[in-house]
Write a structure and sequence with these properties.
alpha/beta; Aspartate Aminotransferase, domain 2; 10 helices; about 40% helix; globular
Length: about 280
């Protein structure tokens, strides 16, 4: 059966696994190794097996699973959500790029965009994510990307995502979304047409409060460029954290479905409370 035909819960458990299994292991082993025998001649530097290049067995198995969860070609894991965000932005903006970014953001992203990007020669403008008519006026000749969050952290403002995708395609921009709060259970950006989906896997994707990690999900072309940039910046995820995240993803669907149900029950209770109108 084609992997895309499998249910999301099944993909969360089985996608990306090595076949045949390594020594019959039901769980992907931890490859705690920094040096590998190089057996292929004439390959690119980035084909050399090395932890900083994010291409060890634990990296690649986990990346395949993440890509399968959002219906994408490729994925990359990073040392934190901010490593995913900062590396992606630096790659897509190139030299002297301009970014359109929504006006409510996770604090770390806001600080990076407002404090670090200008010092590196980039420009930005904030946009109202639900007012598409105002976006064209913010375009510049060097605008390279548009960036939104599925639901903003922490105020939960929701952008007009389909309008963002249409706007990006019309103006040849890279569309980027931080899908941390929704997870692939509630929203799959690649299916809607976003070029890149980012995650802080520290939160719902892992779900066990025992690691810090990030992810970049998208086309092979886009992800490869970001992977090469990450190799230069050094924000790679260690093999043990890859193992923990792989484990956490196996219960992603069950956890998020229960969290959704709990949140709906709480919202209903509060809406009916006698003091709700006060």
């Amino acid at each position: 059966m084609n992997e895309k035909e499998l249910g999301l819960g099944t993909r969360a458990i089985h996608a990306g696994r090595v076949d045949p299994r390594i020594e019959g292991a039901a769980v992907m082993p931890i490859f705690q190794c920094s040096v590998y025998e190089h057996t292929v001649e004439g390959t690119d530097y980035h084909d050399v097996r090395y932890p900083r290049l994010s291409n060890l067995p634990n990296h690649t198995a986990l990346a395949r699973k993440l890509a399968a969860l959002e219906g994408a070609e490729d994925a990359l894991v990073t040392a934190s959500g901010m490593a995913a965000i900062s590396t992606t932005l630096l790659q897509v903006l190139g030299t002297g790029g301009h970014l359109l970014i929504q006006d409510q953001l996770y604090g770390g992203t806001h600080a990076f965009v407002t404090h670090d990007l200008p010092s590196l020669g980039h420009q930005y403008d904030f946009i109202s994510p639900d007012d598409a008519a105002s976006w064209p006026a913010k375009l510049r000749p060097n605008t390279r990307a548009v960036y939104v969050e599925t639901m903003t952290n922490p105020l939960l403002k929701v952008a007009d995502h389909r309008a963002v995708v249409a706007f990006a395609r019309e103006h040849s921009l890279v569309s980027i979304i931080d899908n941390t709060f929704a997870t692939p259970v509630n929203f799959q950006p690649i299916e809607v047409g976003f070029d890149l989906s980012l995650h802080s896997c520290t939160k719902y994707m892992n779900g066990h409060t025992d690691l810090v990690a990030g992810a970049v999900i998208g086309s092979t072309e886009n992800v490869q460029g970001i992977r090469h940039r990450l190799g230069h910046l050094g924000g790679c995820l260690d093999p043990h954290a890859c193992f923990l995240l792989d484990r956490g993803l196996k219960t992603l669907v069950l956890r998020v479905e229960r969290q959704n149900a709990n949140a709906m029950a709480l919202a209903g209770c509060l809406a009916e409370h006698r003091r709700s109108a006060a």
